[in-house]
Amino acid sequence: MKMLHMTKERKGKFHPEHIRNVMRRRYYLDLSSDYRDSLVLAGTGRSGTTWISEVINYRNEYRLMDEPDRNGRIEAFAHFNAIQYIRPDDDNPAYLEPLALALSGRLRNDWADRFNTRIVSTKRLVKFIRASLYLKWLVNHFPGLRVVLLMRHPCAVCLSQSRLDWEIDLHDILLVQPQLMEDFLEPFRDQIAAADTLFEKRLWMWCVENYIALAQLEPGDVHLAFYESFCEEPTKEIERMFNFYGKEWDASIDEAMRKPSNSSKPDSAIVTGKNRVDSWMKHITDDQRQLARRMLRQFGLDAIYSVDSPLPDTEAARAMLARPPQPLPAKAVESISQ
């Protein structure tokens, strides 16, 4: 019995690989405190950010920082909302100091560093999935920071989040932020509060995050990238992104493109071999499709994504960066649960 117990321990926290992983996460040298030595990848959860971060870091060149603004995990961000809105001209040190801590690499945290395998680094790759509501603020306050915003079809994202039971409280995330409500969402208060199903709540978040990011950002602020384009035209999309980051790449990146990410689930398309772009179309219900069609139209995001096609209109998305923000309607769509 004692021998069996020791065997289990060796396979657990005393296993050499586990010890190596702990060492990599906690005992590393980050030799640069210049925020411009950080590359930023932003998007929503389940949009492919983990996969693309691993593609970017396929040579293990970077210290990988994952979700450094996670308020429930990282003390420096404990005062942030789960998905924080910041007005682009806000100079509040309560926002500036923790983001400077993260982008300069001075933040050390088991959560943010949990995927890091670089022992000595002079540059970082920082992945955010909760920063869409302050991306314009980020590029305004950290000039020269290179930010890629990754987009993926809302139905694919929301179905994936729903399958994982990613519950969300729209009141605690949206309705309690007075500046966000005043600037964008007050006309939708009642409809947001009435959102019922998990898919519907997640669809609200996708629309709000992506609309605000695209409405505030301007050409040159960020590089827009698309999950579907990485699947359909990987070489072209990688080249565009790497040129923006100032990175070179070679054929060995192909292996990283084929490899499932750390966040891939056993039933995900990249694991099962299904089409990674359109597999969601077989699982969406008629009610979900109808709601998505109406909400995308309401936010003007139907110019980019349609419920009848898995592929984005990438030029329409880039065009949104070049025009003044369009006024939202005075009333939101009705909930499918009403």
Task: Walk me through what this model shows.
By secondary structure, the protein is α/β, with parallel strands linked by helices. The protein has a single domain, classed as Rossmann fold, CATH 3.40.50. 43% of the residues lie in helices and 8% in strands. The chain has 16 helices and 7 strands. The chain has helices at residues 2-11, 16-26, 49-56, 93-103, 135-141, 154-163, 170-175, 178-185, 189-194, 198-216, 227-232, 234-245, 253-258, 269-272, 286-299, 314-321, and strands spanning 29-30, 38-42, 63-66, 120-121, 124-128, 146-151, 223-226. Helix 10 packs parallel to helix 15.
Helix-strand makeup class: alpha/beta
DSSP E strands, number = 7
Main sheet attributes: strand count, strand direction, barrel closure: 5 strands, parallel
* Mean residue pLDDT: 90
CATH architecture: 3-Layer(aba) Sandwich
* Overall tally of domains: 1
- How are the strands of the largest sheet arranged? 3-5-2-6-7
Helix content: 40-55%
- Which percent band covers the strand fraction? 5-15%
Identify the CATH homologous superfamily: P-loop containing nucleotide triphosphate hydrolases
- The Cα radius of gyration reads 20 Å
- Note the overall shape: globular
What is the number of helices?
16
How far apart lie the N and C ends? 60 Å
Task: Write a short abstract of this structure.
With 338 residues, the protein is α/β, with parallel strands linked by helices. It has 16 helices and seven strands. The longest helix has 19 residues, at 198-216.
